[in-house]
Design brief:
By secondary structure, the protein is of the alpha/beta class. Helices cover 64% and strands 10% of the residues. It folds into two domains: 5-310, ABC transporter type 1, transmembrane domain (ABC transporter transmembrane region fold), CATH 1.20.1560; 329-569, Rossmann fold (3-Layer(aba) Sandwich), CATH 3.40.50.300. The chain has helices spanning 5-10, 12-44, 48-96, 100-106, 108-132, 135-150, 155-199, 201-206, 210-260, 267-310, 369-376, 399-405, 420-425, 433-442, 446-449, 469-481, 499-512, 548-554, 556-569, and strands at residues 329-336, 346-353, 358-363, 384-389, 392-393, 406-409, 418-419, 459-460, 487-491, 517-521, 533-538, 541-546. A hairpin with a 2-residue loop joins strand 11 and strand 12. Bound molecules: adenosine-5'-triphosphate.
Length: 574
C-alpha cells in the first residue's frame, strides 16, 4: 500500500470529490426507503398533500443518488487511471536505470508483465476502492441501524440472514480467491507459450512443429478454461444462494407482519422500508466479499511492483561532463563471474590494444568471447582487475562518455520499429543524409537502402521482420559506425554476410574508420585474419596472443581451429 501513497497524493482532489460523491450516494440510498415509508403512511392516511410533497422529495433524492453515483464513478476512474499511468511510467523509468545484469535478474518478459498486467490489477483495485471502500461499511451499518429502528422486533430475521450469507460468502470466496490466483498464473503460461511460438514461427514451420505446438498450447489453455468454468459455476450457485436467503428473510418478515397488521396498521409501510434495508445489507456483504477477493489479487501485484522499485541498479556511473576518450583498450588481470554463478567466466585476462588497431578474438563456443566484449562496454563490472579505455578505468567514465566511445554490434542486434533514419538518429541525433549514406556505404547497406522507395525513411517493422538476416546485420553495422566511435565491437556481426560483402565491410572499416579501434569476435578465422593482434580464448583464459602468422606457427589451439576451418573451406590463406 505504501507504494501507492505518493501517487494517490497527487490525485488528492479527485479522491476528495469521489469520496464526497460516495457520501451523497449512500445518504440518498439509505434515505429513500425511509421516505417511501412516509409516502405509504400518507397514502394510508389519505393525506394527498403529504403524498405529493414526500413523493417529490423521493424523486429528488433518487436523482441526487444517481448524480452521486456518476460523479463517484467518473472521479474514481480518473484517479485510478492517473495512478496507473504514473506508476507505469515510474516503473519504466526505474527499469531504464537498471544495469544489463538487473534486467537479466528479473527477465525482460517478467518486467513487461509487471508493467502491464500488474499495473492493470492495481488500477482496477484503486477504482474499486474509491467506489466501494467507504460505501460498503456506511451502507452496511446505516442499513442495519435503520432496519433495526424501523422494525426492532425483527432483529433476529436480520441476524439469521447475515449468518447464512456471511457463511456462504466466506466458503465461496475462499475457493474463488485460490482459483483467481491460479487464473493469473495460467494466463501467464498461455502468454508464454503463444509468445514463444509466434516469435519462433520460422523454426516451428521449418521443423513442421505445428501439431506439437498446438498440444503444448492446449495444456494451459484447457486448464484455464476449466478454472474459469469452475469460477463461473461458483458464481452461478452463489448469486441465487444469496438472493434466496434474502428473499426468504423478506418473505418471513412480510408473513410475520401480515399476522400483526390488524393490530398495527403502520407495519404495512414499515415492512416495505425494512425489506429495502435487508436488500441493502445483502448488497454490502456481496460487494464487500468481491472487494476482498479483488484486493488480495491487487496486493500480490503491488508486491511485485514494489520488488521492482526496491531493486537498486547494481551498477552506477560517475557524474561529470561528457568528454572524449582515446580508443586504446587495456584489460589488467580481469576476472569476472556472472551473478549467481560459482566459477568465473573470465580468468585473469590481460591484454592491450593500441588505439586504431584491430583486435580479433577467437575461441571455442562458450570460451568467454562475448563476455569479454561486454566488459569493454561496461555491461558488467569485473570481480577483480581493471578494464581501461584511453587509460581510464571504465568505472570512472560518465555513462554518456562511455556510450559515445564504444559501439557494440551484435549478431542479432535489435532494430527498433520506426524508420531506418530513426534507428540511426538514436545513436547520432543530428545525423544528416550525407552521414547516413557514408555509414551505410561502410556497412555495405547503402546499395539496398537506396533502392527502397523511401530510402532512409523506409519503415522498420517490429523485430525488423521486413529485412533479411544479412540486411539486418548491415543496418546494425550502419548504426554502429554512424557516430564514428572510438571503439567498435563486432560480435559475430558479419555472420550472415557472404564472404565478398564481409570483405568489403572490412576494407571500408580499414579505409574510413582508421582511427577506430575494432574488436572483432568471429567464428570464422577468415574474419579476423588481417587483425593486428588476435586473442585466443579457452575456458575464459587467454591462451594465445599474436598475429595470424604467429599463432599458426606457435599456438596449438589456434592451429586446431585453423586446420578444422581450412579443411572445411579449403580456401584460407596460410
Ligand atoms: N548472462 C549470462 N549469465 C550467466 N552465464 C552466462 C551469461 N552469458 C553467458 N554465460 C556463460 O558464460 C560462458 C561464456 O559465454 P560467452 O557468450 O561469453 O561465450 P562465447 O565464447 O561468446 O560463446 P559463443 O561463441 O557461443 O558466442 C558460457 O558458459 C555461458 O553459458
Amino acid at each position: 500500500m505504501k507504494v501507492l501513497l505518493p501517487y494517490l497524493k497527487k490525485y488528492r482532489r479527485d479522491a476528495i470529490i469521489s469520496t464526497l460523491a460516495v457520501l451523497v450516494l449512500v445518504f440518498a440510498t439509505l434515505w429513500q426507503p425511509r421516505l417511501l415509508q412516509t409516502v405509504m403512511t400518507a397514502i394510508m392516511a389519505k393525506d394527498r398533500a403529504a403524498v405529493w410533497q414526500n413523493g417529490i422529495w423521493l424523486i429528488v433524492l433518487a436523482a441526487i443518488g444517481i448524480v452521486g453515483g456518476v460523479v463517484n464513478t467518473v472521479y474514481s476512474a480518473r484517479l485510478a487511471l492517473g495512478v496507473a499511468t504514473d506508476l507505469r511510467a515510474d516503473i519504466y523509468r526505474h527499469v531504464q536505470s537498471f544495469a544489463y545484469a538487473d534486467v537479466e535478474t528479473f527477465s525482460a518478459s517478467n518486467l513487461v508483465v509487471r508493467m502491464t498486467n500488474d499495473v492493470q490489477q492495481i488500477q482496477g483495485a484503486v477504482m474499486a476502492a474509491f467506489q466501494q471502500v467507504t460505501r460498503i461499511p456506511l451502507l452496511f451499518f446505516g442499513a442495519l441501524a435503520l432496519a433495526l429502528t424501523t422494525m426492532p422486533q425483527q432483529w433476529w430475521v436480520i441476524l439469521a440472514m447475515l449468518v447464512i450469507i456471511v457463511l456462504v460468502a466466506v466458503v465461496a470466496f475462499r475457493q474463488m480467491s485460490s482459483l483467481f490466483g491460479r487464473t493469473q498464473q495460467l494466463i501467464e503460461n498461455v502468454n508464454t507459450v503463444a509468445r514463444e511460438n509466434l516469435m519462433g514461427i520460422r523454426v516451428v514451420k521449418s521443423f513442421v512443429q505445428e501439431d506439437n505446438q498446438i498440444k503444448t498450447f492446449a495444456k494451459p489453455s484447457d486448464e484455464l478454461r476449466d478454472v474459469t468454468t469452475r469460477i463461473g459455476e461458483l458464481f452461478a450457485v452463489l448469486m441465487p444462494a444469496f438472493f434466496l436467503t434474502a428473499n426468504v428473510a423478506i418473505a418471513g418478515s412480510v408473513y410475520l407482519v401480515g399476522t400483526q397488521v390488524l393490530a398495527h396498521p403502520a407495519y404495512i409501510a414499515a415492512v416495505s422500508s425494512f425489506t429495502s434495508y435487508l436488500g441493502q445489507i445483502l448488497f454490502a456483504v456481496i460487494n464487500g466479499s468481491f472487494i476482498m477477493t479483488f484486493a488480495s489479487r491487487a496486493f500480490i501485484s503491488m508486491g511485485r511492483v514494489r520488488e521492482v522499485f526496491d531493486h537498486q541498479p547494481s551498477m552506477h556511473f560517475v557524474d561529470g561532463p561528457e568528454k572524449k576518450v582515446a580508443g586504446d583498450i587495456t584489460f589488467d588481470h580481469v576476472t569476472f563471474t556472472y551473478p549467481g554463478d560459482e566459477t568465473p567466466t573470465l580468468k585473469d585476462v590481460s591484454f592491450t590494444v593500441p588505439a586504431g588497431q584491430m583486435l580479433g578474438i577467437v575461441g571455442a563456443t562458450g570460451s568467454g568471447k562475448t563476455t569479454l566484449a561486454q566488459l569493454i562496454a561496461r555491461l558488467f563490472d569485473p570481480d577483480s582487475g581493471r578494464v581501461l579505455i584511453g587509460g581510464v578505468d571504465v568505472r570512472e567514465l560518465p555513462e554518456a562518455t562511455l556510450r559515445d566511445a564504444v559501439a557494440f554490434v551484435l549478431q542479432r542486434s535489435t532494430l527498433f520499429s520506426g524508420t531506418i533514419a530513426q534507428n540511426l538518429r538514436q545513436v547520432k541525433k543530428e545525423a544528416t543524409a550525407a552521414s547516413m549514406h557514408r555509414a551505410a556505404e561502410i556497412a555495405q547497406a547503402a546499395e539496398f537502402i537506396e533502392r527502397l522507395p523511401e530510402t532512409y525513411d523506409a519503415p522498420v517493422e517490429e523485430r525488423s521482420a521486413n529485412f533479411s538476416g544479412g540486411q539486418k546485420q548491415r543496418l546494425a553495422i550502419t548504426r554502429g559506425v554512424i557516430a564514428n566511435p572510438e571503439i567498435l565491437i563486432l560480435d559475430d556481426a558479419t555472420s550472415a554476410l557472404d564472404a565478398k560483402s564481409e570483405k568489403l565491410v572490412q576494407e571500408a572499416l580499414d579505409r574510413d574508420l582508421k582511427h577506430t579501434t575494432t574488436v572483432v569476435i568471429a567464428e570464422k578465422i577468415s574474419s579476423i585474419i588481417r587483425a593486428d593482434s588476435i586473442l585466443v580464448l579457452d575456458g575464459g583464459r587467454v591462451v594465445g596472443e599474436g598475429t595470424h602468422q604467429e599463432l599458426v606457427r606457435d599456438n596449438t589451439i589456434y592451429q586446431e581451429i585453423y586446420q578444422t576451418q581450412k579443411a572445411k573451406e579449403g580456401r584460407l590463406p596460410a
